[in-house]
Structure formats: C-alpha cells, structure tokens
Amino acid sequence: MTQGSAQSSGASTPPAREPRTNWGMRIIIGIVLVVFAAIAFWLLSAFLPIWWANTIAQQVGGNLGGGVLLGLIYGFAFTFVPLLVLWQIRHRRVSWAWKGVLTVLAVLLSSPNLLTLGIMVGNSEAAHNAQRIIGTSATWFPQWTMTGAIIAGVLFFIFMIWSLMWSKRGRDMRKLKEQKHAAERDRDELRASVATREESAPTTALPETQTRPDTARNSGSPSASDSAPQRDIEL
C-alpha cells in the first residue's frame, strides 16, 4: 500500500520546469553596453590624438634629432614586443582564454604606434589638430616611427624563421635520440635472450676417446719386430 501510494505520488508530481530566459532584459543590457561603447569611443577619439600629440611634443621638445631617435625607439619597441607576445599564441599548451589575453595585451603594447598611425591617417578635427602639433614640435617623429616599425617587422620575420628552424632541429634531435635508445634497447634485449638461451641449453658430455682401427689392429697382433726373434729361435 505504501509503495503504491509512493508510486502514485511520484507519478502525479509534475516535472520541474526550466527557468525562462529573460530576452527582454538581455536586449536592454546589450543596447546600453553598445551606447556606452560608442560614447567612450567618441570621447577617446576626440581626446587621445591631441593628448598623444602633446605628450610626444613635450618629449621631443622641438629637437629634430630627438624626434628621429624617439621615433625609432617607439616604432621598434612597440612593434617588436607586441609581435613577440602574439608569437606565443602558436603554442598548443596555451588555452583559448590565454590566447585572448595575449591578443589584448599585444594590442595594448602597440597602442603608441596605433595612436601615431591614427593621427597621421585620421580625418577628424582632433586628428588634424594633433597633426599640426606634431608637425611643429616633433617634425620627424611619425616618419621615423614608421621606419622603426619596419625594421622591427623585418627583424621579427628573421627571428620567426630562425625559431622555426631551431624548433625543427630540436624535434629531429629528439627523434634521433629516441631511435638510438630504441636500437640500444633492442640490442640489449637480443643479448639477454641469447644469454638466456645459452644458459638453458643442456650440457652434452664429451664422448670417450675412441681408439683408431689401425691402433686396435696393431695392439691385437704382434709387430714384425716382435715376431722376428721367435722365428730365429725356432730355427
């Protein structure tokens, strides 16, 4: 009776309903995030070019040699280092989450060169104002930044080819070592099997020394030298 009532109560219990997805709230949150991203982008595009141009102008100080040197340093460092960070993504042991983190880090590290590029190719009012600031206080900075970036790209390409060749050489060396160890292991196993076979083989007794037939005949019949005195005695 108890089991029947339990079964009937279990059968009458309705299945648990899955919680409904509130798509309306999700859509509202998505729209708010898009609006905030658009406002932030507009503010940054209006503020960052002029801020970056003033920062470079203060560092160069109107010196042509300073603009050349600083442009080379910025162009090379903030191109080569981000490429090195991105180069780590190729490893299989790096998870997708860390690949995303490395990508964001590479973009942040290359932001000085991206800001300079945005100023030089930009068409906004802030970009034009920044171009005038750099043109009067840091004349050669953009050109030599591009030169440093090109040098960094060429050197990184050489480094990439060398790294791939070195990795291939390492894999080939490991493969040769594995083959050598396998050959030595097979040789040791062969020697051990031969030694085990020799130890387990029965020892055969050496046959007794057999007399040769001519020796047996000579031992059974008297020699010619022994029979000669007997004939003399008979005579």
What does this structure look like?
- Keywords: Membrane, Transmembrane, Transmembrane helix.
- With about 240 residues, the chain is an all-alpha fold.
- The protein has a domain at about 30-165.
- Helix content is about 80%, strand content about 0%.
- The longest helix is centred in the last third of the chain and has 60 residues, at about 140-200.
- It is elongated.
- Residues about 5-10, about 210-215 and about 215-235 have low confidence and may be disordered.
Poorly predicted ranges: 6-10, 209-213, 215-235
Shape category? elongated
Strand elements, count? 0
Give the number of helices.
9
Helix share bin:
over 70%
List the helices and strands in order. HHHHHHHHH
- What distance lies between the first and last C-alpha atoms, to the nearest angstrom? 141 Å
Mean pLDDT rating: 77
What structural class should be given to the helix and strand makeup? Answer: mainly alpha
Biggest β-sheet description: none
DSSP strand content? under 5%
Protein name: Multisubunit Na+/H+ antiporter MnhG subunit
Keywords: Membrane, Transmembrane, Transmembrane helix
